[in-house]
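Write out the 3D structure for:
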Amino acid sequence: MRKLVMIIGLSALLVMSACGDSDSTETNSETNEREQEVEGTVAPEDFGKVYSDPAAYKGYEVEFTGQVFVEPERDEDGIYLQVFENPQKSENNAIVSFDDTNIDVETEDYVQISGIVMDEFEGENLMGGTITAPMVEASSIEVVDYITAVSPTIQTIEVDEVVEQHGMEVQLQKIELAENQTRVYVKIANNTDDVVYFDTYSAKLVTGSNQFEVEDNFESGLPEIQYDILAGVESEGVLTFPAIDENTDALTLHAEGHSDDYELDFKAFVFEIEVE
């Protein structure tokens, strides 16, 4: 038996008993015990239902992704996390224990978790509000990237086209469609003797009669294109737009750039993409 110790809302302390030991490899008896506890399986896309009544899912196997939002607790028996299953809205707090003391996971990491719901926690936060959260004993935890956890790719459109003006090259590498955003991968090459500029927030994505503007996406950790690019330098990154219809058959990207040489006339860098 071991104690699961977690901080809830930075104010409440929870201690519960759960099965397991400090060895991440289960023995046969532990495996049998786990199998006896399992009441069913919750599909990853249905994990949000657990929050409606965590106690009703006690003994259910679950799989979900989320973001660690407080400093992990560690002791000789394992690691203990608080994870937002919906990090974009800072919602759906899950309390997770794992018996591998060597796992490298920190605050703000995105994680993919498989495990079993052990119970429901109920307590108060600093504002006096009631907190309920499922307590999950993990069988595996994997640190993953932002895209995997928050915005899985539905479709990738490979483009690999270059538009060049006055020695400034703009390459549209690919476009990724997701349920909650569209990601446009761009590379800029400055083959001139002057500084060139790429205006990220002037970029526009057009589908049919709809025009989309670039959105901030600082929490993603995705690379950003530098604004001012020195002579002989390349810069690449990701432009994030709102989600578009995955069944669209044509896209147009408009991008803006200019140079320190004001005598040069730069027009928009335009890419017309047919989606197969």
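The mean pLDDT is 86.
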